[in-house]
Specification:
By secondary structure, the chain is an all-alpha fold. It contains two helices and no strands. The chain has helices at residues 2-53, 56-89. It is rod-shaped.
Length: 90
């Protein structure tokens, strides 16, 4: 009789341990799934930003802006060089 009770206790203890381990693994998997979901959301946001940056119209506008800035800078540099020459002549 004690052997049967001991065996039953061992089985019950094994079931409790397995259930505890299963719950722990389930929680760990759920945490990893949330992490994957967040990473997917971050990836979609970066892909959307990349697509926006690849927009041909925006690219043209940025090229025009940079060209305008370079032209202004060259004009300023040319103006500065002319003033330097005038000072040297006097």
């Amino acid at each position: 009789m004690l052997v049967v009770l001991g065996a039953a206790l061992a089985v019950l203890l094994t079931v409790v341990i397995l259930r505890t381990e299963t719950s722990r693994l389930h929680n760990e998997i759920a945490g990893l799934e949330r992490k994957i979901e967040r990473r997917g959301h971050d990836l979609r946001a970066v892909e959307m930003e990349l697509a926006r940056l690849r927009n041909p119209m925006l690219l043209r506008l940025r090229v025009q802006e940079v060209s305008r800035q370079l032209a202004e800078q060259r004009a300023d540099d040319a103006g500065d060089s002319g003033q330097t020459r005038e000072r040297e002549a006097h």
